[in-house]
Amino acid sequence: MNGRILPLLALVIAIGAFFVYVNPLMSGPIAEAKAAIARDDAALAVAQQYTAQENQLAAARNAIDPAELTKLNELLPDSADNVRLILDLDRIAGDSGLQVSGINVVTGTASGSSGGASIPASSPVSSIDLSLSAVGDYTAFQTFLSSVERSLRLLDVRSISIQGSDTGIYTYQVTLRLYWLH
């Protein structure tokens, strides 16, 4: 009988040790550690996917011709760069035969809040309106508008006002919308 009690006692002690020590340890700190490891593994997998996508996009960007990238940056620059735009508009007007008498920023129209289609607040693109005053003949004005249209810089002609003259020299008021990435 003694030979049967010892194994039975060992089994009862083993079952008791499991429920008293092993099971609480497995369902407590060890389970929390396994859950934390699973979360970290998931975050690591997402980070590896992000890195792979970032490398893929970098390779695609590096495959773009630098001259084309320069054109793209001119089309939609990283900043408003009003000074450069004003110099470009003045050069285009001069080449067209127009004489610029003033360029002003139209207040209260930033980010597309002035008439027409507006830019959503979540958009990475911002805009501002510029008012340009110029003097010249109608052919020079047509040449100017054609040059603005062919310009690489993304501009919208918002309004045109022409003040007549008997001499064939007119005064033009043009409002342009300028776009840039922010």
User: For the record, what CATH class of the largest domain applies?
Assistant: Alpha Beta
Number of helices: 5
Q: Helical percent range?
A: 40-55%
CATH architecture field of the largest domain: 2-Layer Sandwich
* Total E-strand runs: 4
Q: Explain this structure to me?
A:
About 3% of the residues have low confidence. The protein is rod-shaped and about 130 Å long. It is 54% helix and 22% strand. The protein has 182 residues and is of the alpha+beta class. It is built from 5 helices and 4 strands, in the order H-H-H-H-E-E-H-E-E. The chain folds into 2 domains: 61 residues; 106 residues, Alpha-Beta Plaits, CATH 3.30.70.60.
Structure summary:
With 182 residues, this protein is α+β, with helices and mostly antiparallel strands. It is 54% helix and 22% strand. It has five helices and four strands.
Question: Could you name the key traits of this structure?
Answer:
182 residues, alpha+beta, Alpha-Beta Plaits, 2 domains, four-stranded antiparallel beta sheet, 5 helices, 4 strands, rod-shaped
Q: What layout of secondary structure does this protein have?
A:
Layout: H1 2-27, H2 29-62, H3 66-75, H4 82-96, E1 99-105, E2 125-136, H5 138-150, E3 155-163, E4 170-181
Antiparallel strand pairs: 1-2, 2-4, 3-4
